[in-house]
Every structure is written in C-alpha cells, then in structure tokens.
Amino acid sequence: MDAAIIYLIGPMGCGKTTVGKLLAKKLGWGFADADDFHPVENVKKMEAGIPLTDEDRSPWLETLQEVMQKASNSGENYVVACSALRESYREILGIDQIRCISIYLKGTPELLRKRLQQRHHPYMDNNLLTSQLEAFEEPQTGMTVEISESPEKIVEAIMVHLHS
After folding, report:
1. Does the model's pTM come out above 0.85?
2. Per DSSP, what are the bridge partners of residue 44?
C-alpha cells in the first residue's frame, strides 16, 4: 500500500524544517530532514562554504528517494524538508503531484537572508544562499506558499490546500 509524501522545497532559510515538523505533527505523519541524508563529503563542502554540484547532490537525492519510497511502500506517510533546487532533482525524488507532492516555500532573497541571520545550522554556511538562489528553478507544478507569515499560518494554509 503506497502512502503519501509531501516535500517542502525551497532554498535555505525558507523554513522547510520548522514548517515541516509542524505540518507532520498536524497530519500525524513522519518527518524527515533531507540534510540528514547527505554523505560526509557533502557536509564538509557545505561547512567550508563550497556550493554542491549536481554530481554531489545526485547520490544524496537517490538515497533520499529510496528511503522515502520504502516508507511509502510500507504505508508510512512523510513530510520531508528538502531544498530540491532543480526540476531534475524533483524528478529524481519522484515528485509527481499525485502520491508525492511538493510545496514550495517562497520568500524574497532579503527575507531569506534576514532569517538566516537569526538561525544556526550545524553545517550550512549562510553564504551558500547565493549559490542556492542561482541554482533554484521555481517549480511549475505543486503548491506555492509565501513565507512572510508565521510557521503556524503557513501550516494552516497548507492544510486548507490539502483538504480542498
């Protein structure tokens, strides 16, 4: 029995983890942070402020897709926080807007920078935002939510959309 997967996507600072944990709790689903699936080499590059390449990201995305597919096949629903910067990455993840959907947490570069100044990530250098914004391809499908509201309001908007 296949279950559903919701990927919260967008560049660093958009609130994927915060919103994802709240949404997962509200839905009674599991939560996964894609950052936890990065190989050590990727983590070291990001700690050093070196942007990841498509080649760096490919094994990470494939591992994440395999883990989420197994969970889905076992009947487990998940909310996943994952940048999924490019359309090709979203294809690797199996985002089809049916069983595996995406919700883009959209914010201005200024808002993202402001949020990054107010948080600490264990290894993501805040200067990587520029490279993420350059690499990001806005999704043409799925839901888009502006992130200027509180995480709770964002989750409310997502819940309304999911139940419509």
Report:
1. yes
2. none
Cβ atoms of residues 16 and 93 within 8 Å? no
Residue whose tokens read 């509201």: 149
d(CA 7, CA 60): 15
Planar angle of CA 142, 56, 76, nearest 5 degrees: 45
pLDDT tens digits along 117-144: 887 655 556 577 888 899 999 999 999 9
Give the span between the Cα atoms of 161 and 155, in whole angstroms.
10
DSSP 78-127: EEEE----SHHHHHHHT--SSSEEEEEEE--HHHHHHHHHT---SS--TT
What tens digit of pLDDT does each residue of 46-86 get? 888 888 899 999 999 999 999 999 999 999 999 999 999 99
C-alpha 22/C-alpha 65 separation (Å) is 22
Q: For the chain, which residues make up each domain, given as ranges?
A: 5-157
| Domain 5-157, CATH | 3.40.50.300
